Amino acid sequence: MRASLVNQLRVLVPVKRTIDYAVKIRVASDGKGVDQNVQHSMNPFDEIAVEEAVRLRERNKEAVKKITAVTIGPAKAQDTLRTALAMGADDAIHVTHEGAIEPLAVSKILRAIVEKSKEDDEIGLVILGKQAIDDDASQTGQMLAGLLNWPQATFASKVELSGKGEKGDKVQVTREIDGGLAVVESQVPLIVTTDLRLNEPRYASLPNIMKAKKKPLKKFSIADLGLEKEVAARTETLKVADPPKRQGGSKVENVDELISKLKEKGAI
Predict the structure, then answer these.
(1) pLDDT tens digits for 80-135?
(2) Burial (CB count within 10 angstroms: exposed 0-12, middle 13-18, buried 19+), residue 243
(3) What does the pLDDT read at residue 162?
(4) What's the rounded Cα separation, in Å, for the pair 98 and 92?
(5) Is residue 74 reached through a cis peptide bond, with omega within 30 degrees of 0 on the bond before it?
(6) What is the Rg, in whole angstroms, of the alpha carbon atoms belonging to the chain?
(7) SS3 (DSSP) at 170
(8) What's the whole-number average pLDDT of the chain?
(9) Cβ-contact 161, 167 below 8 angstroms
(10) What pLDDT, on the 0 to 100 scale, is given for residue 4?
């Protein structure tokens, strides 16, 4: 870790454009995916990550220097970045890419962004949602930690900057586990993934939405990062189908009748 990270953290927050959680998902006509011609918004877990980065700075104004939002996607993904900027991020990075992209490729792109930051203003903390609501993979944060060889604190329900005399050089994370809570502490640089109960994201006010239009937004292509081969899909979707419709149930008078019905259906 460079000495400049202490008291001068630059936080990177990856955000993803996903189908809005309130939209009813429909299978696409080709049967290979879902209909994308619907309302999109920022992945809810990533909203929590942006909110937490902003709150960290509000609680530790001298420790957090800059918050950078980054997304990978088509031109429309800039709307997601503008939302992050309106929530409080300082600048944004858009890596242009059309079509689906797998978690490993996302992790490699984020690693390239982190390594590129060493040329100018090094990133010392990455906060991202624990999963995206479209693929539910929950892999990107862990893969990024492995690629960067950084420590990780996943499924965070509380995040605090700590450190005696050098505020900001350590991060303490509370994690929800089966039967209780686990508290871990690590030096930065660090990867943190956010859980639902970490915070409640703020609504972007109209003045902040207008200000967001003037905040810096850099664009990179996959080629600019030298990762053309890395984004090639390793899996192929053969078929997407609606789940079978739920059938109505029936009542039985006694246990013997229940057993008989189950046998008829081949359940036992």
Answers:
(1) 999 999 999 999 999 999 888 899 999 999 999 999 888 778 899 999 999 998 88
(2) exposed
(3) 79
(4) 19
(5) no
(6) 22
(7) strand
(8) 88
(9) yes
(10) 44
In this structure, what are the phi and psi dihedrals at residue 227, rounded to the nearest 5 degrees?
-120, 30
Closest-CA residue to 123 (of 189, 187, 219):
189
**Pairing, β 170-177 against β 17-19:** unpaired
The tokens of 156 are what?
């965070």
DSSP 220: E
Does residue 262 belong to any structural domain of this protein? Answer: no
pTM of the model: 0.84
CA distance 138 to 131: 4
Residue 265 inside a domain? The answer is no
DSSP 174: E
* Residue 215, pLDDT score: 94
Helix/strand/coil for 63: coil
Give dist(CA 159, CA 150) in Å, integer.
17
Q: What Å distances lie between residue 87 and 29, 186, 239, CA to CA?
A: 36, 27, 38
In a domain, 88, yes or no: yes
Domain count for the chain, please give it: 1
Helices assigned H by DSSP within 182-227 = 206-212
Domain with 96, as residue range(s), is: 3-243
The C-alpha atoms of residue 12 and residue 4 are separated, in whole angstroms, by 16
Q: Does residue 197 contact residue 72 with C-beta atoms inside 8 Å?
A: no
CATH number of the structural domain spanning residue 178: 3.40.50.620
| 207 in a structural domain | yes
Structure tokens at 246: 């739920």
Which residues make Cβ contacts (< 8 Å) with residue 173, sequence separation at least 6?
A: 153, 156, 158, 159, 160, 183, 184, 185, 186, 192
**Cα separation, 250 vs 252, whole angstroms:** 7
Question: pLDDT digit string (tens) for 143-189?
Answer: 999 999 999 999 999 999 876 545 557 899 999 888 889 999 998 89
